[in-house]
Each structure stands twice: as structure tokens, then as C-alpha cells.
Amino acid sequence: MSLSSEPIRSSRSSAFLRGAVATLPLLVGAAPFGLVYGALATGVGLSPALVQAMSAIVFAGSAQFVIVQMLEQSTPLLVILLTATIINLRHVLYSASIAPFIVHLGHRWKGGLAYLLTDEAYAIGVTHYQRQPEALYRHWYLAGAGLALWSTWQASTAAGIVLGYALPADWSLDFAIVLTFIALLVPAVRDRLSGEVALVAGLTAVLVTALPLNLGLLVATLVGIVVGMSFDRKQPSACFRDQALERGPL
Amino acid sequence: MSASPEMLWLLVVIIGLVTYALRLSFIAAAGSVELPLVVRRALRFVPVAVLSAMIAPALVHLEASMQLNWDSPRLLAGLVAIVIAWRTGSMLATIAGGMVALWVLQALFA
Q1: Taking CA atoms, what residue in B is nearest to A216?
Q2: Measured distance CA(B49)–CA(B90) in Å, rounded
Q3: Same domain, yes or no: B58 and B76
Q4: B92 is a domain residue
Q5: Based on the domain organization, do B71 and B53 belong to the same domain?
Q6: What is the number of domains present in chain B?
Q7: Which residues, numbered 49 to 78 in chain B, qualify as contacts with chain A under a Cβ-Cβ cut-off of 8 Å?
Q8: pLDDT band, residue B101 (cuts 50/70/90)
Q9: pLDDT below 70 — which residues of chain A?
Q10: B48 & B94 share domain
Q11: Residue B7: pLDDT above 90?
């Protein structure tokens, strides 16, 4: 007997709660990430208000780390903006993938769900939309998942800010940003081609560090993408659930 | 850090608006637009390329003599962290192990 043949009796609040509960395993990954972000951003001299506001306004973990690292290196703000935009471009994929499911909702719902559309919320939400085609209140489920992540991200950022003031400055903690990136990169390299893209982008980045304005990151990223596309034989799919999950925190 | 606080806030707000616009894009377009194939193909490689391009220069420097600094504590600690990330898949273990490795190596090299 399949689940979808059951009578639909779930209310809005229970859909919301189930969405929040579904994110629990992912919150375990997001919370330390937020903690480290808050501590490091405070450590490089950003004001606590700005560190917290960035978590609320940008709400995209890996971009926030890159912004912090580039600010520490006194990168021109325009280059930081460009780099952060490229890193967050993936959200267009999620937007395109989730759009058909919520096309019937009003503007407020669409606006709110778009704000909450992180990697994890997307992965949890799109899974639910595909597996429960007949369930009502699926947007409440997505909202529950999104808000659970949002609250975790804000709270762990705040805890990280407190931690940032407690940690001594001479512990080379800037290196923890690099370690965070390593923890994100290693699981994302899942086939030969993505490994080669990582190697090419990394080597290029080392070779072009002399470029002015810290533009090396952009150049190396573009070189990596071009190499990847040139050798790519896979058909791109319309669902990015696995990709979003493998990306890890936000 | 050279930027003024006002400019930093402006930067954060603009990046926030851009990120929101990216998330809203197709949702607002009401499913009437299709994402070009070339964009979908390219975006698959963005995370790996960006992360690797951030990591590599933090571990390896190309010196004026065109030699790489293979013996730096940061490179070795980074390699330790890569192994930990690969074996455990844990972000906390990767950060903790990498930091401890760096401190030990710095003490040894000093």
C-alpha cells in the first residue's frame, strides 16, 4: 500500500513541523558551519552587528566565508561582489527547479520561499514535492524546512560571534576558513572529471596569484568551469537534489 | 581591512539583494522561462572550481624563483585535513584535525 493513497489529513502546522523535522540531520552540519563563520568573521575585525546581519541578509554560508576571507585580504569591493555572485549563481538552478511546484502561490509566499531557498531547504523541499504529489500544504513543509535552517543559521552565527571574542588571536584561526573549504570540497569531488576541475582550478589559482585586485580567484574559477564543460559528457538533469545535498551547509 | 564600515554594510546589502534576486528569478517568472542548457552545464562545476581556487593559494605559494614551497606547515596541515575530510566526511573533524596538525607543525618548524 502506498502512502499517497492515505486520506490527506495533515494540517498546515503539521506539514510545517514535518518540514522542520526533516532538516534535523542537515542542521547538524549547518550549526558548526555557522559557529565557525561567526567566530572567524569576528576574528578578522568585522563588527558583531555586521557579522550577524550578513547571516540574515545574504543567508548563504559559503559566500559569507568567501566574503570574509576576501575582506581580510583587502580585496576591492567590486571583486568581492562579482565573486559572491558567481558562488551564489547556483540558486538560479534551485529557483528554476522549484518554480513549477509553487506557481499557484501568491506573491508573498513566493517572495518568502525564495528568501529561504538555500541548498538544504531546496533539497528537502524538492524531494517532498516529488514524492508526495497529492499532499496539500507542501509549501508549508518547504517553509518549515527553510525556517528551521534559518533559525539554526542565525543562532549558530550569534554563538560564533561570542566564541570569536573568546578565542586568542595568535592561533592562526584564519586557517580554519581554508579547512572549512576543504571540508566542503572533498565530498563534492565525486567523479574523475570534478577531480580534474578541482586540480586545474587550484593550479591556475596558484599561478595567477600575482594578478591585481585578487582577480585570480575569478580567473581560476572560470578556467575550471571551461575545462569541466569541455570534457563533460553527462546530460544535465532538471533536479539538483543530490548536488544541493552534496554541497553541504548553505 | 581597508573599507569603511559604511561601505562594508553597503556591500553586504547589495550581495544580499543579488542573492535574493537569484533565488527569486525563476519563481517570479512563473515557470514561463527555461534555463539555458549551457548555464546548467556550467553551474555544475562552480562549487568545485571556486572552492579549489580558494584553497590552493592558501596552501601553496609560487615564489619569485618559480619554486613551490612544498615544506610549509600550512600545506602539510592542509593535506592532513584533506585526508580527514575524505575518510570521515565530518566538517568538525576536518577543522579540528587540520588546526591541531598546523599547530604541531608550526612548533616543529619553528
Answers
A1: B53
A2: 21
A3: yes
A4: yes
A5: yes
A6: 2
A7: 49-62, 68, 74, 77-78
A8: very high
A9: 1-10, 169-170, 213, 235-239, 243, 245-250
A10: yes
A11: yes
